[in-house]
Design a protein that fits this description.
- There is one protein chain.
- With 407 residues, this protein is of the alpha/beta class.
- The chain has 3 domains: 2-142, 3-Layer(aba) Sandwich (Rossmann fold); 170-216, no CATH class; 223-407, no CATH class.
- Helices cover 45% and strands 10% of the residues.
- The chain contains 12 helices and 10 strands.
- The protein has a 5-stranded mixed beta sheet with strand order 2-1-3-4-5, sandwiched between helices. A 3-stranded antiparallel beta sheet has the order 6-7-8. The chain has a two-stranded antiparallel sheet with strand order 9-10.
- The termini are far apart.
């Protein structure tokens, strides 16, 4: 039987920072010596460059620690602080409960915790909540910073776009594509004219031209759809439900008999959730009531003709935006905002057409349609279905792809 120590750090790029490997190990060795757990009787496990939010399946050192606790091999658990063990109240509570059940003390250097005492146990639970709070605050800051970047039209990627480097001209790429009419033709023209790509010694490839052109003009290559959008799943509500607590897309599963379907949050066991799953049959009455509000255009053919004229106007608007950007009259932020606005309007037109050419589903057909077909129909009409975090029931109204279609 042996005492175990666990070290962890999310980032190990700078070993001089305050919770470096050397500092954690030295502190734990000193604390273990005070409890006569040094002199070769202390096994040190570690996970470097691993987040404390990860579960045991993605932290080998932490998984080995849990196995030692379960097997009864561990006589004590040492760590630098609770936040080194995990960043989740649920996971920390589970770890401490396992140790207490087996009479294994948990001793932490920085937090001055020893769960072999009543006061140490109380402090451990308080500090576990603080550890998760700190992690949540850090995540909020990252999300806020990313949102601010997106609002300014900046990319979240650390890699530079083609056109940001010296001597890179995106206008030349776009002009070659429009001249050739295809990605492969544009690549051939660019190679013949000696235009150098960024990271290839073999010249331009159609795929690399595609990346640049689609970034400048997202509508390139879009095809008019007749009927319901492509894609889908074997589950009726696939890609329509998000966890109201953490915003993770819910995953559909069937029971062993294949008759009942349940949608669950994958992070439900790792993060505190009021509720993590719901059966499909409990959701369908409210969803059917919502979809029954679908109001199709009276004259689908007339609407398609009007949409064609509108699409031509949008194409001219996009062309004008590119001309102003290439001429230097518009900055990238304004150009990106205009492209996004035009793309959103094109999506609205396509959504309207997608449902206009599909008959409104009748009440008796809900049970006869295949799940995949019904899913494609619902996703053509709805963007998402908000759920109540406690009851997991739909919160009306649902988010429609085109609110004008809701009566």
């Amino acid at each position: 039987m042996t005492a175990y120590a666990y070290l962890r750090k999310s980032s190990v790029h700078d070993p001089r920072r305050e919770v470096s490997h050397e500092m954690q190990e030295a502190a734990i060795q000193e604390m273990a010596a005070r409890h006569d757990d040094d002199n070769g009787k202390l096994i040190i496990l570690s996970d470097w460059d691993k987040s404390g939010r990860l579960g045991a399946d993605k932290r080998p050192g932490y998984r080995a620690l849990l196995e030692a606790i379960e097997s009864g091999e561990a006589t004590a658990v040492y760590s630098y602080s609770l936040s080194r063990l995990a960043r989740s109240v649920v996971e920390l509570s589970r770890l401490i409960a396992r140790c207490v059940e087996r009479g294994i003390p948990v001793r932490l250097y920085a937090d001055h915790v020893d769960t072999s005492t009543a006061s140490g146990m109380l402090l451990a639970h308080v500090l576990s909540a603080v550890a998760q709070f700190e992690a949540d605050v850090a995540s909020e800051r990252v999300r806020a910073a990313n949102a601010a970047k997106l609002a300014r039209g900046e990319s979240l990627s650390t890699a530079k776009f083609y056109g940001d480097g010296e001597g890179e001209d995106t206008a030349v790429i776009l002009a070659a594509f429009r001249e050739a009419g295809s990605y492969s033709g544009a690549a051939k023209l660019l190679n013949e004219r000696g235009v150098k790509p960024r990271n290839s010694t073999r010249g331009w490839w159609p795929s690399s031209v595609n990346v640049v052109v689609r970034r400048l003009d997202p509508t390139v290559g879009r095809r008019r759809e007749q009927g319901v959008r492509a894609g889908g799943s074997a589950f009726v509500l696939a890609r329509l439900l998000r966890c109201p607590t953490c915003q993770t897309m819910l995953t559909g599963t069937r029971d062993r008999g294949g008759r009942r379907v349940r949608y669950s949050c994958r992070l439900g066991t790792a993060l505190p959730h009021p509720r993590i799953s719901v059966s499909e049959h409990l959701l369908m009455p409210a969803i059917r009531e919502e979809v029954d509000r679908l109001r199709l255009p009276v004259d689908a053919v007339k609407m398609a003709a009007e949409n064609t004229a509108r699409r031509d106007a949008l194409a001219a608007r996009l062309e004008r935006a590119h001309e102003l950007y290439v001429a230097g009259d518009w900055k990238r932020e304004r150009h990106a905002a205009e492209v996004a606005a035009v793309t959103a309007e094109v999506d609205t037109l396509e959504t309207t057409e997608a449902v206009a050419f599909v008959p409104k589903i009748r009440p008796e057909e809900w049970e006869t349609w295949a799940p995949g077909d019904l899913n494609r129909y619902l996703r053509a009409v709805l963007e998402t279905i908000p759920l109540d975090p406690v009851t997991f029931q739909p919160v009306p109204p649902a988010v429609w792809r085109n609110s004008a279609l809701r009566s």
